[in-house]
Amino acid sequence: MAEIKLRDIKYFQSKYVKLTGSSYDEVYARARKMYDQIKAKSKRQPCALDLLQHSRLAPVEKRNPNGNHERVFRFYGRTKGGEEFWVQVKEDKKTKGKYLMSIVPPKQKN
């Protein structure tokens, strides 16, 4: 399988910014306030939810190396502040069920 280069990827632009802070309590207070606001809609992070609901870009699709009956879809996004992130969704080929796997920033090269 050919390696995907980050410069070749198209990113969805989210309207949300990444939560920042200098301490756990500071970040937690902001995150909890935001979570309470979107609680009725979803339990997902705002940027990831925005990406999955509104992106028209095709995800990168590959077979899950941990299970032959699963496929992994990787969606690429960028926060309002310009920070890139990935959302990975797993699909069970047998049941057609889709499950959120992770929301992470891309690996940075040193």
Can you offer a commentary on this structure?
The chain has about 110 residues and is an alpha+beta fold. Helix content is about 20%, strand content about 30%. It contains two helices and five strands; from the N terminus they run E-H-H-E-E-E-E. Strands 1, 2, 3, 4 and 5 form a five-stranded mixed sheet that branches.
Strand tally: 5
Decide which structural class fits the backbone: alpha+beta
Shape: globular
What percentage of the residues does DSSP assign to strands (E)? 25-35%
Question: Any idea what the radius of gyration is?
Answer: 15 Å
Low-confidence stretches: none
**Overall residue-averaged pLDDT value:** 79
Number of helices: 2
Biggest sheet architecture = 5 strands, mixed
